[in-house]
Design brief:
Blueprint (H helix, E strand, L loop, with lengths): L1 H8 L5 H9 L6 H6 L14 H7 L29 H7 L3 H17 L8 H14 L3 E5 L2 E8 L4 E7 L26 H17 L6 E8 L7 H7 L2 H4 L7 E12 L3 E3 L2 E4 L1 E10 L3 E2 L9 H19 L6 E10 L5 E2 L2 E10 L2 H22 L6 E8 L2 E3 L1 H15 L4 E3 L11 H6 L3 E9 L20 H17 L3
Parallel strand pairs: 3-4, 3-5, 5-16, 6-15
Antiparallel strand pairs: 1-2, 2-4, 6-16, 7-14, 8-12, 8-13, 9-11, 10-12
Bound molecules: zinc ion (ZN) (2 copies).
One zinc ion (ZN) binds next to loops.
Length: 485
């Protein structure tokens, strides 16, 4: 059960879908792509009504202005620091060359020794030790995750999340620092997230003269299963952070686009809602030579798989985003035996809650209808294995962070990210805290490198400048709110 779930969950986070987007001729000419304006879409995947999505998925707002420091009059997001200067950014990033060796060492160690959901204690211990070494002021252990707190006087509080779990996938990169553990690997880039998150905490702890407030470096377990953020919330995250409650939450992910050294932001819906469902349909067992005595669940399951394809193609309007994937079919054990049941593992993605509901209802209808048509002796069963929320970036926070990135990297290294059909549980953290957030992409591949998508066993992003850029991005985004004016 656990193994099935984990194997299935490996396909849930779905950054492999980001690969599909990058496989499109999105950057046929790097020089041309660089010349694109920052707000120009790198690659398109269809029309998306951001306004409708935002109205359907409004984030919880901060307390009214006056109760929360810096809360803006509109949207509930705190106002960014308007005086953030390149000099300030440079001063806080002072020492990044010196931390790079241990960041790379840490990255390679995590890569060699990946921990999957439920087994992240070893990684959490390493993270805790490093946070102690770099001099954060306090470390909390919450729900299998770790929060390092850097205190620096009055001001706002910013939370930056790095997920630290690996996937139940056997690595096939051929890297000299490949996973030493068959069936487990960091092929979604979370090792880079952790290395960058630690580096940002280290530099913010070291260089306190140019900023003020509180920085929370949060390391989350179990992103791939969609259970880690909730585990931290369930273990009292909100109460435990009450004294340092963040005004804004931030997160990033290593992606196949843009190129390494570049970042990409997006206002509004950035990641889809995702559901993983196990459907069990029932037949009637028989000898393989006597189908007339049974009801064949293999034929029934096959009909369901084909019919499910009509949901997106025939039931959704052209341009409406939805995905229905049958990731696995399990039926039978021998060539001469007709089984008595079949299991189908389904994956659903949508950017609009109404579309998600429609897809789920259609799946229910089609499965039941096909069972009836087949003469199935028993009602099918449906089990939800995982549910990921829609991830909708706050426009005000996204604008502030994008501006900070432009200052830090220059406009030619900051792009607009197209919506990604993958899913995340990060937003459960800001939702529990009642604060806005933004989540951006950090490019993982250099020009000329073979681009292999997240979750592929051969996923092998360039360590640098990916980790360095992730570190700088975390700092720049935090300073949009913590810069000393
Ligand atoms: Zn993933
Ligand atoms: Zn991931």
């Amino acid at each position: 059960m656990r193994t099935d779930h984990e194997v299935f969950a490996a396909h849930m986070c779905g950054w492999d879908h980001a690969t599909l987007a990058s496989d499109a001729p999105t950057e046929p000419d790097t020089a041309t792509a660089r010349a694109l304006s920052r707000r120009q879409v790198l690659h398109g995947i269809g029309a998306l009504s951001a306004v409708a999505l935002l109205s359907a998925c409004t984030q919880q707002s901060n307390p009214p202005p006056g109760q929360a420091p810096g809360a803006s009059a509109t949207g509930g997001a705190p106002a960014a620091n308007p005086t953030l200067t390149p000099a300030q950014l440079g001063n806080v990033m002072n020492g990044i060359d010196q931390i790079q060796p241990w960041q790379e060492e840490f990255y390679k160690d995590l890569h060699r020794h990946p921990d999957v959901w439920g087994e992240e204690a070893r990684t959490a211990e390493k993270v805790t030790k490093k946070l102690q070494e770099v001099g954060v002021d306090e470390i909390l252990q919450i729900g299998g995750g770790v929060v390092g707190i850097v205190r620096n006087g009055d001001g706002r509080s910013v939370l930056f999340r790095a997920d630290m779990d690996a996937l139940p996938v056997t690595e096939a990169t051929g890297l000299e620092y490949s996973s030493t553990e068959p069936g487990k690997s960091h092929v979604c880039g979370h090792d880079a997230h952790v290395a960058s998150g630690l580096g940002a905490a280290a530099l913010l702890a070291k260089n306190k003269s140019e900023w003020s407030g509180t920085y929370l470096a949060l390391f989350q377990p179990g992103e791939e299963t969609g259970k880690g953020a909730q585990a931290m919330v369930d273990d009292g995250l909100v109460a435990k952070l009450a004294a340092v409650k963040p005004d804004v939450c931030l997160a990033q992910h290593v992606l196949t686009v843009p190129e390494s050294g570049h970042v990409a932001t997006r206002s509004g819906a950035i990641l889809s809602a995702g559901d993983s469902i196990k459907v069990t349909v029932f037949g009637k067992g028989s000898h393989g030579s006597m189908p007339q005595l049974g009801v064949d669940p293999a034929v029934l399951a096959s009909s369901i798989v084909l019919r499910l394809q009509s949901i997106v193609s025939r039931e959704l309007a052209p341009g409406q985003f939805g995905v229905v994937t049958v990731g696995a079919i399990n039926v039978g054990t021998a060539p001469n035996v007709i089984s008595d049941r079949a299991e189908l593992l389904l994956n659903v993605r949508a950017y609009d809650p109404a579309v998600r509901d429609k897809i789920l209802a259609s799946i229910d209808r089609i499965v039941r209808g096909e069972c009836q048509a087949a003469g199935s002796p028993q009602e099918p069963t449906f089990e939800t294995l995982a549910t990921f929320p829609l991830t909708v970036n706050d426009p005000t926070v996204t604008d502030a962070v994008t501006q900070a990135f432009t200052q830090a990297f220059g406009a030619d290294r900051v792009h607009e990210l197209a919506p990604v059909p993958a899913s995340e549980d990060f937003s459960l953290i800001p939702a529990a805290l009642g604060v806005p957030f933004t989540y951006w992409g950090n490019g993982g591949f250099l020009p000329g490198m073979p681009v292999v998508g997240n979750h592929n066993p051969a996923f092998a992003p360039a360590i640098q400048p990916t980790v360095r850029t992730g570190t700088e991005a975390a700092i720049a985004a935090a300073l949009a709110y913590l810069g000393r004016s």
